[in-house]
Amino acid sequence: MEAPTSARQMRRLLDAVLSIGAQLDLATVLQRIVEAAQDLVDAQYGALGVLDDSGDGLSQFLTVGLDGEERAAIGPTPRGLGILGVLISDPRPLRLTDLAAHPASTGFPANHPSMTSFLGVPVMVHGRVFGNLYLCDKLGGGPFTDSDETLCVALATAAGVAIDNARLHSRVAELVLVEERDRIARDLHDTVIQRLFAIGLSLQGVASMSMPGEMSERLEEAVDELDTTVREIRSAIFELHSTRVGRSSLRRAAT
User: Fold this and answer.
1) Residue 173 contacts by C-beta under 8 Å, 6 or more apart in sequence?
2) What does pLDDT average to over the chain?
3) Contact residues for 13 (Cβ-Cβ < 8 A; gap 6+)
């Protein structure tokens, strides 16, 4: 009979939850989740697959345990087939002693390290699958345990909360940025453009007076430059407003 989760393991879980919850940037949260999962269950390799908008494949695949060269040698980001696809179609914890023995196994691509034991856990946000944690090859040999699965499920629950919190923070920051754009646009239009326009009218009035030709030409050049500046500011205002249109969804922006 397997030993229950120890106090040491619970402390590691608490540390992992706190480290994830302390982050506000979603990209950082996602990377920290997979790092924490790998450390928590003593896995040699870990990954977090983020589902795409259709929910049928992966849009992002974060890994630990592989260096940059090894990751690049494997090739494109997995699409969510084989064992990875099992958790996508059936989002429940999956623990395997030997990956290759599972009927859904399709083997590994070229240059992929050999992996044997496997633990997969879905990460839910508001009752919907956001992605899946994949852990492979428990350090020291042997399969992942019941305790490992329990710890990983608990971590995934905390991860869902941290992801939701980070997405909310991103949305708030985005709204603040939009409001700041609007404020800048109003200031440019209501204050800066009006002042430049008034200065331009004054200079035109002075240029129409009788004065040496050189001075009149310089005033006309100044008026032309002010006109150009006003047009550029109006273009900038248009750009500030247009950036609000067609913004991507939180999942696409975050991943």
Assistant:
1) none
2) 81
3) 40, 151, 154, 155
